[in-house]
Design a protein that fits this description.
4-stranded mixed sheet; single chain; Double Stranded RNA Binding Domain
Length: 108
């Protein structure tokens, strides 16, 4: 399958679940959906496919830049709305557990 027949998905990169920081979460990604299902290799048993478009992952600073690149290449695309991020979350530090004059009881 060629890239012309596949739809590129443009979306905002989510925050990593492995870190509390938001580094790299503001980037916009352009990715292709799989063009064919994965199949098991009879010799090794590893999954794989002949579609290399699934390996393409391009980063852009803005959604407009990603859209302009997709249009310049002649690719069909869809843009996903960015997720709603709560701004009222107060950052905490481990050292706050041992702070003098702490108002809460020690819980553990």
């Amino acid at each position: 399958m060629s890239r012309d027949s596949q739809i590129a998905r443009i979306h905002r990169q989510p925050k990593s679940a492995m870190q509390s920081g938001r580094a790299g979460a503001g980037d916009w990604l352009l990715e292709f959906a799989p063009g064919e299902p994965k199949r098991l290799d009879p010799l090794t048993g590893w999954p794989g496919s002949g579609d290399t478009n699934g390996q393409v992952r391009l980063r852009f600073a803005t959604a407009e830049a990603a859209i302009a690149y997709a249009e310049a290449q002649g690719w069909r695309y869809e843009v996903a709305k960015p997720p709603v991020v709560r701004a009222d979350i107060k950052p905490k530090a481990y050292a706050d557990n041992f702070k003098f004059g702490r108002g809460e009881n020690w819980s553990h």
